[in-house]
Every structure is written in structure tokens, then in C-alpha cells.
UniProtKB/TrEMBL annotation, chain A:
Subcellular location: Endoplasmic reticulum; Golgi apparatus, cis-Golgi network
Pfam families referenced in this protein's UniProt entry, alphabetically: TRAPP
Function: May play a role in vesicular transport from endoplasmic reticulum to Golgi.
Highest classification ranks of the organism: Eukaryota, Metazoa, Chordata, Craniata, Vertebrata
Presence of the UniProt keyword Transport in the record: yes
Protein name as it appears in the record: Trafficking protein particle complex subunit
Keyword annotations of the record: Endoplasmic reticulum, ER-Golgi transport, Golgi apparatus, Lipoprotein, Palmitate, Transport
Statement: the UniProt record of this protein carries the keyword Transport: yes
UniProtKB/TrEMBL annotation, chain B:
PANTHER family: TRAFFICKING PROTEIN PARTICLE COMPLEX SUBUNIT 6B
Family from the record: Belongs to the TRAPP small subunits family. BET3 subfamily.
Domain of life of the native organism: Eukaryota
Gene Ontology biological process terms in this record: endoplasmic reticulum to Golgi vesicle-mediated transport; nervous system development
Organism expressing this protein natively: Ophiophagus hannah
Protein's job: Component of a transport protein particle (TRAPP) complex that may function in specific stages of inter-organelle traffic. Specifically involved in the early development of neural circuitry, likely by controlling the frequency and amplitude of intracellular calcium transients implicated in the regulation of neuron differentiation and survival.
Major location category of this protein: endoplasmic reticulum
Protein name: Trafficking protein particle complex subunit 6B
One Pfam family per UniProt: TRAPP
Keyword ATP-binding attached: no
TM regions (residue ranges): none
One GO CC term on file: trans-Golgi network
Length: 170, 163
């Protein structure tokens, strides 16, 4: 019997989204809740990531993008998204996921057209980066669940967080 | 166990923790009743247990009997989910099984102090559902409860419901 723990994660995540869809009346509230939970996971996950990966300080956003795609995604979700669509200023890029492990075996029902199923990922990325002094905006542009060919996560650098105040739960 | 398995285990543990605290946070803000949180966690576990069994047992030979199924839960199933086996399985041979885990994975991150004991049920509900869901997909209807006396050890009691 062989099963990756990532399947356990995928199934558990699916059960969570199903539960939240029951608990909240509209999709926007579910999206918000998923983002908030992701954020709380991200601020804790970064510790585990730094301990496990031994990556040093990134010197620019391009390096950060590389670490996220090639090390972090690989380590936790077993995939390596490609990095594309850099903005001319180098402060925005897209992660393209050919296969999003979170949506294995998932089909969106018709009445949840505004649900951003994998929104937890945005929160995780935002929370984790905030812990390394980077404020970023993270959102989904394309989603295979909505019929797009790939899943695209857009990441925009907002500012460097100078003060080192501890971040609490949202 | 290789490094990557450990890594996505970290993600599962964080997700589980956040599910527990997220539900209770929402309940405190009036988005639901507190008592219902345990039920919700149990239900989520149930769904996951069913899903896991569907993927596990594709190539597993049919089980001999009820005890055989319980042994499978204690060994293969537990190892896949929690990276260790159940330490002790006892039964009265009348439909009650007690599964003891001396170092239950979802409790090991909590402090061992007595004052945390009251929070333990929150961290066991998902797993009670997980066992019930797994058994249900193997054709066994059950009621699963859990108790902790000394952290991080805990006992899951499975009462088989005869159909």
C-alpha cells in the first residue's frame, strides 16, 4: 500500500473547503476564510521551510521567485511551477501550475462559480513572505477548475517590511 | 521516511491545526456554535477516511474478518497517515476495540501540561471521524470516541454497530 502524504493533504483540504461552503453563505466569504487560514499556515510554515531548505537571504524578487517555485513548491506539494510574465519593473510575476495537486479529484459545482478553490495557497504565500519582511499581493488569474488550461498565480511585490514586529494571527 | 514525505507531513499538520483553530475562531465570532465544531471536525475526518480507503484498498486482498480490518487500520492505515503504528490494540471480542497510540502525532506539538488536557478533544475529533470513515467504507458501521489521560498518549475506542 503506497500513498503520498500529499494525497492526505489534498483530501483534507477538500473536506475543509466543503465544510466552509456549508458554513458560509457566499463564495466570497469562503475565499476570505481560506486566505486567512492560509496566512496563518504560511507564517508558521516559513520556519519549517527555512530549517529544512537551508536557503539564504534572497537579494531580489527574481531570486525569491526561484526559491518559491523550485524549492518551496517542490518540497511541500511535489510540483515545480514555471515562472513567467515578469513585469518590466521586475516587481510582478506569475507562477504557472500545470497540475495543481489541491484540485485532484475536484469538480466545482455550478452554484459555486465565484469560489476560488485553492485560495489557501495565496494566503500561505502571503503569510510566509511577510515573515521574511516582504509584503506581497497574491491572487489567482487562471484556474483549471474554471476551465482554464493551466493555473496561474500572480504575485506582486508591494514593499519591504522594515520593522521586525511580530505578526499575530489575523 | 524520505525528506519530501516529512515535508508534506508538516503541511498536513499545520493544516489540521489551522482547521481546528479556524473553526473555533469562527464560532467565537458567532459564525456557528462552539459545540458544533467537534461535529464538523469529525465530519471532515469521516470524509477524508472514506477517500483514503478508496485509494488504499484498490489492490488489497479482501479482509478475513472484522479483526483483520482493525489490524489493517492499526498498521497500514495508521502508518500512512501518522507515520507510525498503533501501539496497542485490545478487544473484548464483542465489538469493542481500543486502539492506543502512545505518541499521537496530532498531540505531540502541544505542550504536555495538564492545563492543555481540556483542549485535547479538539485535536482528536478529526481522527475519530477518520477511523469511522475508513471503517464505513470497509462495510463496518461504528461509533468512535477518544480519550487522553497523559499527553501525547491517547486511546480511540471503536464500538461496532451491528447492522
Amino acid at each position: 500500500m503506497h500513498l503520498m502524504s500529499s494525497e492526505l493533504f489534498t483530501l483534507t483540504y477538500g473536506a475543509l473547503v466543503t465544510q466552509l461552503c456549508k458554513d458560509y453563505e457566499n463564495d466570497e466569504d469562503v475565499n476570505k476564510q481560506l486566505d486567512k487560514m492560509g496566512y496563518n499556515i504560511g507564517v508558521r510554515l516559513v520556519e519549517d521551510f527555512l530549517a529544512r531548505s537551508n536557503v539564504g537571504r534572497c537579494h531580489d524578487f527574481r531570486e525569491t521567485a526561484d526559491v518559491i517555485a523550485k524549492v518551496a513548491f517542490k518540497m511541500y506539494l511535489g510540483i515545480t511551477p514555471s515562472i513567467t510574465n515578469w513585469s518590466p519593473a521586475g516587481d510582478e510575476f506569475s507562477l504557472i501550475l500545470e497540475n495543481n495537486p489541491l484540485v485532484d479529484f475536484v469538480e466545482l459545482p455550478d452554484n459555486h462559480s465565484s469560489l476560488i478553490y485553492s485560495n489557501l495557497l495565496c494566503g500561505v504565500l502571503r503569510g510566509a513572505l511577510e515573515m521574511v519582511q516582504m509584503a506581497v499581493d497574491v491572487r489567482f488569474l487562471l484556474d483549471t477548475l474554471k476551465g482554464d488550461g493551466v493555473t496561474e498565480i500572480r504575485m506582486k511585490f508591494i514593499r519591504r517590511i522594515e520593522d521586525n514586529l511580530p505578526v499575530g494571527e489575523e | 521516511m524520505n525528506k519530501s514525505e516529512m515535508a508534506d507531513e508538516a503541511l498536513f499538520l499545520l493544516l489540521h491545526n489551522e482547521m481546528v483553530s479556524g473553526l473555533y475562531r469562527a464560532a467565537e465570532q458567532g459564525d456557528g456554535e462552539n459545540g458544533r465544531c467537534i461535529t464538523k471536525l469529525e465530519n471532515m475526518g469521516f470524509r477524508v477516511g472514506q477517500g483514503l480507503i478508496e485509494r488504499f484498498t484498490k489492490d488489497t486482498a479482501r479482509f478475513k474478518d472484522e479483526l483483520d480490518i482493525m489490524k489493517f487500520i492499526c498498521k497500514d492505515f495508521w502508518t500512512t497517515v501518522f507515520k507510525k503504528q498503533i501501539d496497542n490494540l485490545r478487544t473484548n471480542h464483542q465489538g469493542i476495540y481500543v486502539l492506543q497510540d502512545n505518541k499521537f502525532r496530532l498531540l505531540t506539538q502541544m505542550s504536555a501540561g495538564k492545563q492543555y488536557l481540556e483542549h485535547a478533544p479538539k485535536y482528536l475529533a478529526f481522527t475519530c471521524g477518520l477511523i469511522r470513515g475508513a471503517l464505513s467504507n470497509l462495510g463496518i458501521k461504528s461509533i468512535v470516541t477518544a480519550e487522553v489521560s497523559t499527553m501525547p498518549a491517547c486511546k480511540f475506542q471503536v464500538m461496532i454497530q451491528k447492522m
